[in-house]
Specification:
This protein is an all-beta fold. 0% of the residues lie in helices and 55% in strands. It is built from no helices and 11 strands. It has strands at 3-7, 10-12, 18-25, 33-39, 45-51, 56-58, 66-70, 76-81, 90-99, 103-108, 112-116. Strands 2, 4, 5, 6, 9, 10 and 11 form a 7-stranded mixed beta sheet that branches. Strands 1-3-8-7 form a 4-stranded antiparallel beta sheet, with no helix packed on it. The radius of gyration is 13 Å and the shape is globular. The N and C termini lie far apart (40 Å).
Length: 118
């Protein structure tokens, strides 16, 4: 059974940084694609960033501030979030899946809360 576990959420002030991490276990192969989603209160869940062995993609709202990275073919992934804004407050979800023209998440973590507040 695949398990996806996030860590690293917390409370920060605007302009500060935070790093989220994710580990996928329970499978015998490496996922080609992984990604982060987020969901703010009262809003839909949005795709934040994705990473494959060949490329990374970011939502416009986080371009230039967030960096997604992965430990080679290992099923571990990070999201470095810099210059955080109030509107970045959300529950962030790690996912593992595949990419066929667009990203299709297959497995989800429970989420980790990121709160940006002054």
């Amino acid at each position: 059974q695949v398990q996806v576990v996030e860590s690293g959420g917390g409370l920060v002030q605007p302009g500060e940084s935070l790093r989220l991490s994710c580990t996928v276990s329970g499978n015998s192969f490496s996922f080609y694609a992984m990604g982060w989603y987020r969901q703010a209160p009262g809003k839909e869940r949005d795709l934040v960033a994705t990473i494959t062995t060949e490329s990374t993609e970011y939502a416009d709202a986080v371009k230039g501030r967030f960096t997604i990275s992965r430990n080679g073919t290992a099923n571990t992934m990070n999201l470095q979030m810099n210059s955080l804004k109030l509107e970045d407050t959300a529950v962030y979800f790690c996912t593992a899946g595949h990419y066929l023209g667009k990203y299709y998440p297959g497995h989800w973590g429970q989420g980790t809360q990121v709160t940006v507040s002054s």
